[in-house]
Amino acid sequence: MDYNEAIAYLNGLNKFGIKLGLEQMYTLCNFLGNPQDSLRFIHVAGTNGKGSVVTYLSYIYIQAGYRVGAYTSPAVLSKREVFQVNQQWIAEEAYAQMGSQMKTAVEQMVSEGYDSPTIFEVETAMAFLYFKHMNCDLVILETGMGGRTDATNVVKHTITSVFTPIAMDHVVEIGPTQEDIARAKAGIIKAGSKIVSVEQNPVVTRFLELEADLYHEKVSYVSKEDIRVSLKTNDTYESNPIESVTKDIVTKENCTIEINSKKIVTEKNDLDGTCQQFTYKTYQDVQIRMLGEHQAENASLAIEVVECNQDLYPVSMKAMYEGLQQAQINGRFSIIRKQPLMIVDGAHNVDAVIKLRRSLQAYQHGRRILAVNGIFRDKDQEHMMQEIIDVLDLVITVPLPNQQRSMPAVELAENWKKVYQDSLGMDLHQAENKVYAADSIKEGVELALSHAEQEDVILIFGSLSLVQELYMLTDIIEVT
Predict the structure, then answer these.
(1) Burial of 138 by CB count in 10 Å (0-12 exposed, 13-18 middle, 19+ buried)?
(2) Which CATH number fits domain 3-222: 1.10.600.10, 1.10.110.30, 3.40.50.10230, 3.40.1190.10?
């Protein structure tokens, strides 16, 4: 089996859909010799921010000298990026080799009367196999959907269960209430594992602590009160609590600024010279390349996780700072063009859109924002639109690559028009001048460019599945 054949084989498993539950996964791993039992994991669950936290942790531990496996989903640019060791994608040859082993195991399962596993189950088991083959010291493991019955939850040796913000998403598969979502996510907690979470709403907090109590463990929380982000205010710089971030972040290029009476040299970053800098507890003036006002919280969560594991995996202060500064990930408030400024963000649920709106207000206040948007049918479209519509000057709807799940662009455009009327009090004519439908992502981006001035911002959001197609538009984007 070569690489293309392995890709075709795994893609063929899409026909088995999504099946939550661990029985099939245990069976598949057993046929492979249970490679997961030879590995140690930091297991990350949540609704938003999982990929960013996995990335921060990976970079930190790599800087500390460990061999680090990272498993994230969905794939954004390539199937290979799902399986990373020290931030290097799996090689095509290794992918083909692992794919061949997976095919043999699945065929054995089916021949003995078991149902075929799903593509996510096969990819997850393949990750375990690969990370064992690569002798990883530690694996940072992102859940796919939920937690308790997610395929990743067959692991035994979880040193830390990590929780990013938990909100409503995947309600069809997990359940329609906050209690359902919280119960599912909390299920990754294991006996003997440490538990670290960002501050959650009361319902989620209750379920995390109930699950922790079963194993006589305590949940450590990252408090927003301990996070202070550096802001520019009237040409002076001051440190503010994270929840107060609504103004422009530091934007001086290659300059010296003063924060908390300390002189800090900032360098040009990806967003018009922006440097995002924050302090968490004793970690002063931490610089991160990932943009978005929520990233200070994600990075602080990573710091707390590393600190609680210093007994097992020691990390120096130098490795912590360098890992955080180097970490970056595609499709999370990522800049893909400078003039006009083009931002892509995978925000695909209400909570993520709220964070996206805050980031736009923090970085781009006063500039026109033209949006290119595609959304899956099963998302809470109306509330997503309501949370961001008043900062968008124009919306161009596009279909997503997965046509079965995608809301048709014309239908999505009508929904945007209705929200413009209901939320902002526009008449039909005004709303129609605000919204257009395009036949493809490429056409949508080109239409946005035709309407944009050099100082405008083009925002592409609604699904991570938009990102791969965007990065193929090499005549439009400027990613190096």
Answers:
(1) buried
(2) 3.40.1190.10
Q: What angle do CA 268, 272, 278 make, to 5 degrees?
A: 60
Domain residue ranges in the chain:
3-222, 225-326, 334-471
Say whether 334-471 and 3-222 share the same fold: no
Task: Yes or no: say if 139 and 131 are a contact pair by the CB < 8 Å rule.
Answer: yes
Q: Please report the DSSP string for 400-466 in residue order.
A: -S-TTTBPPHHHHHHHHHHHHHHHH---HHHHHTTEEE-SSHHHHHHHHHHH--TT-EEEEES-THH
Say how far apart CA 417 and CA 430 lie, in whole Å: 9
Nearest to 87 by CA among 331, 330, 344: 330
* Strand ranges, E, within 173-275: 194-198, 219-222, 227-233, 236-241, 255-259, 262-266
Buried b (16+ CB within 10 A) or exposed e, 56-77: bbbbbbbbbebebbbbbbbbbe
> How confident is the model over 134-184, as pLDDT tens digits?
999 999 999 999 899 999 999 999 999 999 999 877 677 777 898 999 999
CATH class of the domain defined by 334-471: alpha beta
| pLDDT tens-digit readout, 32-68 | 999 999 999 999 999 889 999 999 999 999 999 999 9
Q: For residue range 266-299, what is the model confidence (pLDDT) as tens digits?
A: 233 334 445 689 999 999 999 998 887 789 999 9
pLDDT tens profile 82-102: 999 999 999 999 999 999 999
Residue 341 in tokens: 């400024």
On the question of pLDDT at 362 being above 90, the answer is no
| Phi–psi pair at 210, nearest 5 degrees | -65, -45
Count of positions (residues) in the chain:
480
Beta carbons of 32 and 292 less than 8 angstroms apart: no
